[in-house]
Amino acid sequence: MLDTGVYGLKVAVAGTGLIGGSILLRLREAGLDVRGWDPDPGTRDHGRQQGLAFADTLTEAVRDRDVVFLGGPLSSLPDTLIKVAKSTGDDCVITDVGSTKSTVAAFALGNGLAHRFVPGHPMAGTERAGLAAAIPALFDGAAWVLCPAPDGLISQFRTLATLIIEVFRARIVPMTPPVHDSVVALSSHIPHVLAGSLAGAAARSPVSDAIIGLAAGSFRDGTRVAGTPSRRTADMLINNREFVLNQMELVDRFLADLRAALRDDDVEALTGHLGESRSLRESLSSRPMQPVTRQFPRFGPASAELDFLLRLGESGGHLDGCSTDDSTVTYTALRPA
Amino acid sequence: MLDTGVYGLKVAVAGTGLIGGSILLRLREAGLDVRGWDPDPGTRDHGRQQGLAFADTLTEAVRDRDVVFLGGPLSSLPDTLIKVAKSTGDDCVITDVGSTKSTVAAFALGNGLAHRFVPGHPMAGTERAGLAAAIPALFDGAAWVLCPAPDGLISQFRTLATLIIEVFRARIVPMTPPVHDSVVALSSHIPHVLAGSLAGAAARSPVSDAIIGLAAGSFRDGTRVAGTPSRRTADMLINNREFVLNQMELVDRFLADLRAALRDDDVEALTGHLGESRSLRESLSSRPMQPVTRQFPRFGPASAELDFLLRLGESGGHLDGCSTDDSTVTYTALRPA
């Protein structure tokens, strides 16, 4: 299907909240044949009023599609995946947008769908929710994790990578599901735990009212994501429970180091630990990257290709191009220098 | 001296970094007679090039002044306070801008200067430092803590409150030194501990590079103040050591509650705890305030006035007006409804 180019792909989006809705809007804007579906009839009506193609049933939405994006809450994914797989041909590529990857990847494997399902996670969002909040540019420049299948069926990964880079202008970060879940525990989930603990400690303090009166920029920044709907945050943490609990131990140990230096009145030790934090923080905005181009045979064993992709993601790099001709796949990437 | 109005006051600023420099700039902009001094000759030259009046010695800077602001690092305050007190008349009001208040207040009391020294803390700042980074509007709308003397010598407090409200357009928050230090431990210092721990944990993680690649908005917000110069943060924490260690226990307990709910896979309990955090966070931006006007006799015992002021600060309120006539002082304030 890649031979017709990604703009010839027929796509469906099942579950059109903030993320799924933004995917749908961008695909339409780019001129692709795209059909939406959402379990909520009000959302379907709202979509049609915006001139979007919406089907009344999931089966109807995904029939004859080349690619299906699964939106919707994490808990809905197993059911939807099974239904979509039954209603589509074996060469239809299915991906999802859930915030954790191990559970859904294991489910796909256990149900014989690993060859068709490429777990995905676009790292974008806002505090808002629903199709009404969706915007087509949501993924511009954002990281979008894709988990290539370990068994060598890599053409689905290539199709999605090309589509997502060309149409959504996102940065593709290839990772295995457990590496993804371990990384997002620290890069996305634990920040919610710490923001919640700071705001919660202030709420329970006897001088709570005065704290609100004197809230500095550090307090406002440090509690911002505590304003996220509580149930949504709880679901996110529960879904990545093992990795969050595990990575929290790194936070505990660092906190213990800071506390020991403070207790000992040891300004040198304290400055040293805070210097480690500062270096990490600075590399967020100023990490030099270098361009890389790699080619692999289009057909045959893909273990070298897979190895390149997974090392790229683990090193903090990303793909910014993927093209395929009769015999060769060419990746362009940026990785830390 | 209040009878001539605050615009007739002669003021000095000793120590003209970011905060002291911004005070100096704003006083000059407002047309007051103000003189600066800094231990660094380069800073004095830089100030003069900007057309500011700078003295070469501290004694010369503060001689004949009605009000002296002490800028400079916390460690310099005791020395500077003694020198300024010796070089000025007994009716000269001295205040400081340090980020903790108990230590300097105890020092002033121990040196017989409690009747002339009103500990202060303007809650404003930027990541930058030095006179070159100073801006006259830095305190517009900011909270500015002042600690009225407990022994009833309250006219100095009134003078400063009027000056700071009228000239700097800041919100005066009256507090005792220990209440201030306890509040800022949570509203300003512990956020640096948590930001440092999040960034530090990421730095020490085996997937550190990948975390930087996938850093979400929550991670960026949660680590922002980890970018502050490490020594400055270490000094700030060490200076409020007891209160920071003490208030960290509230954070520990909340963190333990979140972790227990997560470990037990108890989404209801987790949602409940996060709901406490969310309520506190929402009250940051949407706490209804009501106006209050109170009058007290200008002379005589000030215990009722002191009581009003300290309750106002503890309740999360602030003064937005202070005026004095022959017999009466009038405060206007906003406090949580």
TrEMBL record, chains A, B:
Keyword DNA damage: no
Similarity comment: family membership: Belongs to the prephenate/arogenate dehydrogenase family.
Alphabetized InterPro entries for the sequence: 6-PGluconate_DH-like_C_sf, NAD(P)-bd_dom_sf, PDH_C, PDH_N, Preph/Arog_dehydrog, Prephen_DH
Signal peptide: none
Top-level lineage group: Bacteria
Keyword Oxidoreductase: yes
PANTHER family named in the record: PREPHENATE DEHYDROGENASE, PREPHENATE DEHYDROGENASE [NADP(+)]
Protein species of origin: Micromonospora sonneratiae
Sorted UniProt keywords: Oxidoreductase
Protein name as catalogued: Prephenate dehydrogenase
Domain Prephenate/arogenate dehydrogenase intervals: 9-292
Entries under PROSITE patterns matching the protein: PDH_ADH
Pfam families, alphabetized: PDH_C (PF20463), PDH_N (PF02153)
Region named Disordered: 277-296
